[in-house]
Amino acid sequence: MTLSPTTDAVETTVSALPPHLLQSDILKLLDGRSLASLSSVSQNWRSICSEETLWKDMSATMWPSLAGESISALDSGYRSLYSDCITSSCPPLKPRRRRRNTAAYPTIEKLISAVDVYCDGQILFSKDFVTDTISDVFLNNPFKLQILSPKEKIPTPLKFDDEAEECIDVAEAGVRVSWILIDPTGKRAFNVTGLRHVEANRHWLNGFIKLHYATVVAVPSGEMAQCSVMVTCGGVHGGDMEVVDVTLQVEDLNLKPLTGSESLLAIGEAMAGRRRLTGGKMEKERYREFVKRRVEKKEREEMIKRNIDIVIIIAIVSIFFAIFAFFRSTS
After folding, report:
1. How far apart are CA 269 and CA 63, in angstroms?
2. Surface-to-core class of residue 265, CB atoms within 10 Å of its CB (0-12 exposed, 13-18 middle, 19+ buried)
3. Across the chain, how many H-helices and E-strands are there?
4. DSSP 8-state secondary structure symbol assigned to residue 199
5. What's the rounded Cα separation, in Å, for the pair 207 and 168?
6. What pTM did the predictor assign?
7. How many CB atoms lie within 10 A of CB 250?
8. HSE-up of 131 (CA within 13 Å, CB side)?
9. pLDDT in tens, 68-92
10. 237 to each of 157, 167, 314, how far by Cα in Å?
């Protein structure tokens, strides 16, 4: 008599395997999407695939900075962390309608940054650090985070040419940065850089290449803002390309850096925003909309300024003729 494979038979076979063997030798070979799909097959698989250490190891493999000491304080929630980091945050580009005295996201008392720098898929640099967000110094000054000291550089195997346009293509294809912001209290995160940069250009003076990553959000003022990561690649002509600066800022439509308190509102919008697997396309579309709104705002401000100038000129001319007419009538 032959037995046809049934779900029960498969379940019995799987149940017979030690869970640690599945998690350490088999499931770790899967990516996050495959693991999530497998967890929906049955209750048994869901239990096996929900093990925190499995998602913790998977997160640290993809983003080595998530294995740092700052992130080790997160004793749970690694599956949610992985989901937040692998997707793009797409909050509405208009301010949310909220009830009075409510916010898009709870107050962020501490921010953990997890930064990884890659070249041709190989990890070059990892760093994690904590930023205190409740001090007056942070809240009232422009928000700016940097991972490198002024003299610190990250060497790459790429060659740098401060003139050839092809060098920009080389940097775009080879250099990639991931900057993840984590709220350890709310156990939410978002990858500021997404999967792709939104813009690349050269500095007009020194020829250094700038790769721009951005997540665009709406802030309560009604305008748009961008959580911006600027990666600067430079070096000596003909020598090795180096990453000389990686900076995170939150900027308004005028590219003016927001204060810490204002930046937390934008970061909160990104934390609370819906998530999508966009492949980097969504970030570029939203950035183009940001640039479009910025141009429109600048044109409006210039038109208002011209109109004010015209009114001032008319007022001055009118006063001059009024004074001239007065003295003429009295003479």
Report:
1. 23
2. buried
3. 10, 12
4. E
5. 10
6. 0.82
7. 27
8. 23
9. 888 876 666 788 888 888 888 777 7
10. 14, 11, 56
